[in-house]
Amino acid sequence: MVAEGITAWGRIALLWFEKSATLTRPTAYRADIDGLRAVSILLVMGYHAFPEHVTGGFIGVDVFFVISGFLITGIIAGEVDSGTFSLRTFYARRVRRIFPALITVLLVTYLIGWPVLLPEAFALLGQNIAAGVAFVSNMFQLSQLSYFAPNSSDNPLLHLWSLGIEEQFYIVWPLVLLVFGRRPGRLWLVVALALVSFGISLAIGFGRSDWFFYSPLPRAWELLAGGLLAVWRRAGAPGPDNRSASPRLENLAALGSLSGLVLGATLLNRNVLYPGAYALLPVVSAAVLIMTPNSAVNRWLLASPGAVWFGLISYPLYLWHWPLLSYLHIIRTDDTPLLELWLTMALAVLLAWATYRFIEKPLRHGRRVVAPLALGLASLGLAGIVTAISGGFEWRFSPQIRAIAALPSKDNAGFRKHCFLEAEPASEFDESCIDRGNGPLLFVWGDSTAAAIYPGLTHMQKTGAFRIAQFTAGGCPPILASTEAIRAFCNPINERAVAFIRQSRPDVVLLHAMWEQVFNLDEFRATIEALKQLPVKRVVILGPVPIWKRGLPSTLVNYFRARHVIADRLTFGVAGGKADDRMRAFAAAAGVQYVSAWRAFCDGNGCLTRVGAAPQDVVVWDTIHLSTKGSEYLAETIWKDLAIE
Question: Per the confidence metrics, is the pTM higher than 0.90?
Answer without folding.
Answer: no
